[in-house]
Every structure is written in structure tokens, then in C-alpha cells.
Amino acid sequence: MEQSGGPRGPEGNEEARAAAHCYRHPDREANITCTRCERPICPECMISASVGFQCPECVKGGSGTGHAADANQPRTLAGGSLAADPRLVTKVLLGLNVAVFVAVMIQGDRLLDELLLFGQAATEPYGPVEGVAEGQWYRLLTSMFLHQEIWHILMNMLGLWFLGPPLEAALGRARFTGLYLLSGLAGSALTYLVAAPQQASLGASGAIFGLFGATAVLMRRMRYDMRPILVLLAINLLFTFTWSNISWEAHVGGLVAGAALAYALVHAPREKRTLVQYGAFGAMLLVVVVLCVVRTAQLTG
């Protein structure tokens, strides 16, 4: 087993490369090596340097080959700030979903009707017409944190806890948060565009499928074995199109948005990384707005 304090000489490097596991996290695969000590490192340990990536020990010791700014401001694979707790945003999102679930259990249908995603419908017989088409665009976001059945929130939160931390570590908190929210919004927008106006939709599935797409892109970027994530994604897509009462629009919209954003985040050229990444987020938000404007015009025109 590799030790974090293992040899850095040629023999130690050969052992590390052969093991293909992070020297700081032996249970994680690593196909990237530190440009200084050449030991394999996982996404959480990758710190952006002027050329390639360095491990935290080399950066901390000031022995890295990057510029001083790289050493003073460690960066993730996507250029985000390296956080002490790479699971913080994942925990917050999980807590928000659980809190809204508990609130719905307490408040009942009244709160449910206020947060659900639907295009245009009457919440009560002969009641006022409500929905996104009536200006309630907030439903695109609130429905992402809304669950009614215990099995529904358990499945989605299991997916969030499984996929979230590695992505958060590789992308950084801000980029991970943006990817999660925009994936969910893209799923909501496609649902609004395609589904019947009175069809209600809820759940974090769109955002979770966005994490699936982003994980596949990240694993390909890291040259990991993609078979596990592809099999898991295929199973979830099979359920999407075979089970009843599942919004396939949210799943597909989130998946495509997550994969597209992740590609821009991890493949952006270093010299134009910020511009490309901000541009990708802006373009995705614009797509969401355009889809909603088009559908609103259809329903109200």
C-alpha cells in the first residue's frame, strides 16, 4: 500500500504509477501525476500550475514548478479555489432538499401547490390560473428542491451524495454550484417546453442527471475507466423511459446541460479559462430563458 510519506525517487515513482492510485487517497484512481514529484494524484489533490498539476505537498513546500501565484492560490482541475471541505456545497444542497421535504410534510398540499412546476393550470377547481406562463418563473427553481414521496428524495439524495463530492472537489465550490443549479433549471425549462401545461413536475432529478453527465465528462478527461458510470447512467435512463410518472424531459435536459457545462469547465484553455467558463454558464442560462419565453408565448399568445 502506498504511504503519503513514501519515497520520491525513481523506485517510488514507478511504484506509484504502477498502482495508479492517488498517493494521498489510496482508494481513489489517479491517472494524473504531479509535475514535480511525479506521484499520481486524484482530482481532489490536483492543484493547477503553469504547466500541468501539482500535489498539495509540493505546493505547500514551495517546491513546485508553477508561478508564485499558483503556489499561493491552489486551484482545482477547473481552476476553482481549493477548499478545505470538498463536500460543503453537496451537504448544503442535501440539507436544503431535506428541509423542503420536511416542510412539505408539515404544510401539505398548500406548500406543494406553491412550489410545483407546471406551465399553466388552476390549482383548485374554478380557481385562478397559475404557473410559469403566468409569470411564476420561480417554479423552475423551487421545484428542483421539492419531493413528495420518501423513495423519491432517498434516490435523489443518494445520487447527490455519490456524485457530488468528487465533482465539487474537481470543479471547485462556485463552479459546482453553478453546474448543479443550471442543470436543474435546464431540466425544468425542457419540461415546461414539452410537457402538457397542467402536468406537474417536481424533484432534483434534473440536477442529479446533470451531475451524471458532468461525471462522465470528468472521467473521460481524467482517462478513468468509464464503464461504471456509463452502466449506472444507462440503468437510470432505462428507468426514465420505462417507469410511469417520471419526467423524462427533466432528466434529459439536466443530462445534456451538465455534460455541456462540464466539458467547458474542464477543457477550457488555460489562458482563456475564465472567459470560456463564464461564457458557457451565460449561454446555458440564455438557453433556459429562451425556452421559457418561447413556451410562454405559445401558452399566452
TrEMBL record:
Keywords: Hydrolase, Membrane, Protease, Transmembrane, Transmembrane helix
Membrane-crossing residue ranges in chain numbering: 150-171, 178-195, 201-219, 226-244, 250-266, 278-297
Principal localisation: membrane
Cellular compartment(s): Membrane
CDD domains on file: Bbox_SF
Gene Ontology terms describing biological process: proteolysis
A Pfam short name: Rhomboid
Any GO molecular function: peptidase activity
Membrane topology, record value: Multi-pass membrane protein
Superkingdom to which the source organism belongs: Bacteria
Domain annotation Peptidase S54 rhomboid: ranges: 135-266
Protein family (similarity comment): Belongs to the peptidase S54 family.
Protein's recorded name: Rhomboid family intramembrane serine protease
Species in which this protein is naturally found: Streptomyces albiaxialis
